[in-house]
């Protein structure tokens, strides 16, 4: 029997509800995880009731890579099937997925569906639509891709430095293959809708992906395009086009002030001819591949002039970011935090499930000394803790207050206590990994979230801090999952104990 979970990252597209209903099929998934990546959600997602457990995790606009990571880490199945929130799947998709996965050898890490994009009727696709039609038969895209969870753990999952739905899937697949795994095609077919044309803006917005190309080049070298099986690209020609346009304008400007105006005019004319030829070649290729309507031709002409400098600017931005990030540990901010927030159970005190007896409070090694060092430095300290035992009826408010008072008697006073009393299915904004507790603690302490450092022992502590804009350090215990440690090493920091976490990120006491 295949054990699989379905993960759907979403920004709230209209077809999400139907897609969730369709994946609630037979054989049933162990769970359906919807990763809500809306930056500012005014309302809950409109999701149907499902027979399979439905889990919603929130990533607050951190991008599809972060959403998919949060999704698969919330599931425990052997296989994780990723679906984009705008695809259409057949009614028997679950059966087809199981058929693709059953019997695959251990060396196979992933099964990719065939993606079908229906073309426009009676005409060639526009330039904007070709960005979607090119998905047909494309390698390694996660519009419908199932990964072994063990392979995701081995690779660390998606690289969250890719902020867009571009290149992050190819990067994961390439890292997976380099670990010795294979990725195979399944027999299932999934339909991806044709992108709606947004005029000339869509072509210009797409150029932001050039910054992601810089990250791939930094990771895999100049041959990165051949490694992921993509086309050669036009970076070199865009650079030449931009340089010739810049040279023509510079020559014109120099001709206005220099004595030899005729010579500068010849320079400007030569550079202008080069630019015009390159721009015409670029535009002609795009026009001939499209419907050749007046609107499409005018759009292509305008964008063919604007795309080269925009693409070069984004690529330069990406190269500078990669180079700058390589010179420092981006997980260690330059300024010391003004407040340090701690998870309670497993971080400050030993983890006793639904602790109701104050006499069972046992501080973690070094906790008192670490807290005193912070207090001597004038750093505010606080506690942010999920306590679902209140909602479950396993502890009452008086017992919680007595336990927290015992914690303070052993570890000293805290400047803020923030507790979530809700059950996991309450979908509140305060239960970690939601950012509510961290934001509330920062507000009470009179500091900004980015001036806070969160220290905890599980992945939800890290996720809550990052979602709030705070820094995070994971101090693992025997309850910490390997995947949570790998994830924290990539997006935050990991320390062996409280003392090390504080010394590294706050500094030594004077």
Structural description of this entry:
The protein is of the alpha/beta class. 44% of the residues lie in helices and 14% in strands. The strands form 2 sheets. Strands 3-2-1-4-6-5-7 form a 7-stranded mixed sheet. The chain has a 5-stranded parallel sheet with strand order 10-9-8-11-12, sandwiched between helices. Helix 11 (261-288) packs across helix 12.
Summarize the structure.
The chain is α/β, with parallel strands linked by helices and 510 residues long.
Question: Helices, strands, pairings?
Answer:
Blueprint: E1 4-10, H1 16-23, E2 32-36, E3 54-58, H2 64-73, E4 79-83, H3 93-101, E5 108-116, H4 127-133, E6 144-148, H5 149-155, H6 168-178, E7 182-191, H7 200-205, H8 209-220, H9 224-228, H10 235-257, H11 261-288, H12 294-326, E8 339-342, H13 367-376, E9 380-386, H14 389-392, H15 397-411, E10 416-420, H16 436-445, E11 452-456, H17 459-468, E12 471-474, H18 482-491, H19 498-505
Helix pairs in contact: 8-12, 10-11, 10-12, 11-12
